[in-house]
């Protein structure tokens, strides 16, 4: 194979604004950028916290090939009963084995198989999870022979943890991409052994806010510490993600760059 495959990994979809811009822009983006694969983190799709079966189906219907999740995976009541019934959605791989849902996905286009899985970071994160480094090692071994390329999402708070995992997996996977902090970082690169890396691909949602939420209640909580409802913001809505060019012959990344799309 001498051609190049293109994969778009979309950062956390936040609420209705994120879902709406995805539905509006993704079909054309697939054509304009020649995208073969689209993967999106959907853990904030339902009013900013969690996802439902109906929303997962609507996101897949927009042209997303696979949905990953993060620490808000179980925030929506009843989702634990739906996740196993919806194809192309996976939960973090380092959650306890008793958790429902798939721990990875494999999608195929043009005879090329891409596996994707998510690991949760453990620094400053509350959800019970196994070591992301050891889990990633296990998953890579498990997927050997089942996929031509592996995309690893690290859903984590600490930049050091994300960067360390990138170096740990360099040369063994096609990409290590960070999510969770909702702010796109300026460190997109291909590491020395051919693994694309970006500390955070950003969020898909309203940027005129605080991580996708209305400004006033968030600022007020920082001032007095009292609990408040954080509604999803509505302005300056963008799609944010990373586009990776993959060499099928080597299953290595040739290039990675941030993609930002505004209304």
Q: Provide a count of the helices.
A: 6
The CATH architecture: 4-Layer Sandwich
Mean pLDDT metric: 96
Distance between the termini: 36 Å
Q: What's the overall geometry?
A: globular
Question: What's the total number of strands?
Answer: 13
CATH topology: Purple Acid Phosphatase, chain A, domain 2
- The H/E string reads EHEHEHEEEHEHEEEEHEE
> Under the CATH scheme, which class?
Alpha Beta
How much helicity do the residues have?
10-25%
Q: Report the sheet-strand fraction.
A: 25-35%
Short description:
By secondary structure, the chain is an alpha/beta fold. The protein has 6 helices and 13 strands. Helix content is 24%, strand content 27%.
Describe the structure.
With 263 residues, the protein is of the alpha/beta class. Helix content is 24%, strand content 27%. The protein has helices at 15-32, 53-61, 79-82, 132-143, 159-169, 215-224, and strands at 5-10, 37-41, 66-68, 89-90, 105-109, 112-120, 149-155, 175-179, 189-190, 196-198, 205-206, 237-247, 252-262. The strands form 2 sheets. Strands 1, 2, 3, 4, 11, 12 and 13 form a 7-stranded mixed β-sheet that branches. A 6-stranded mixed β-sheet has the order 5-6-7-8-10-9, covered by helices on one side. Strand 5 and strand 6 (112-120) form a beta hairpin. 47% of the residues are buried.
Characteristics:
single chain; alpha/beta; 7-stranded mixed sheet; 6-stranded mixed sheet
Topology diagram in text:
Blueprint: E1 5-10, H1 15-32, E2 37-41, H2 53-61, E3 66-68, H3 79-82, E4 89-90, E5 105-109, E6 112-120, H4 132-143, E7 149-155, H5 159-169, E8 175-179, E9 189-190, E10 196-198, E11 205-206, H6 215-224, E12 237-247, E13 252-262
């Amino acid at each position: 194979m001498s051609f190049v495959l293109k994969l778009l990994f979309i950062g956390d979809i936040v609420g209705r604004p994120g879902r709406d811009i995805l539905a509006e822009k993704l079909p054309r983006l697939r054509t304009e950028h020649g995208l073969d694969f689209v993967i999106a983190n959907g853990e904030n799709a339902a009013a900013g916290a969690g996802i439902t079966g109906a929303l997962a189906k609507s996101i897949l219907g927009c042209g997303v090939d696979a949905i990953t999740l993060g620490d808000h995976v179980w925030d929506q009541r009843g989702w634990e009963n739906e996740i196993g019934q919806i194809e192309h959605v996976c939960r973090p791989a380092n959650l306890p084995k008793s958790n429902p849902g798939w721990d990875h996905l494999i999608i195929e286009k043009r005879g090329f198989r891409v596996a994707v899985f998510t690991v949760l970071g453990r620094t400053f994160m509350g959800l019970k999870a196994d070591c992301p480094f050891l889990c990633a090692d296990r998953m890579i071994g498990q997927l050997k022979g089942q996929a031509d390329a592996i995309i690893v999402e690290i859903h984590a708070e600490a930049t050091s943890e994300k960067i360390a995992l990138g170096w740990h997996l360099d040369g063994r996977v096609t990409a290590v991409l960070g999510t969770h902090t909702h702010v796109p970082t300026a460190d997109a690169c291909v590491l020395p052994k051919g693994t694309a890396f970006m500390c955070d691909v950003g969020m898909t949602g309203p940027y005129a806010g605080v991580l996708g939420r209305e400004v006033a209640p968030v600022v007020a909580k920082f001032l007095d510490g009292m609990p408040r409802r954080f509604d999803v913001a509505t302005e300056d809505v963008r799609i944010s993600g990373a586009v990776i060019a993959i060499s099928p012959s080597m299953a290595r990344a040739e290039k990675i760059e941030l993609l930002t799309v505004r209304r």
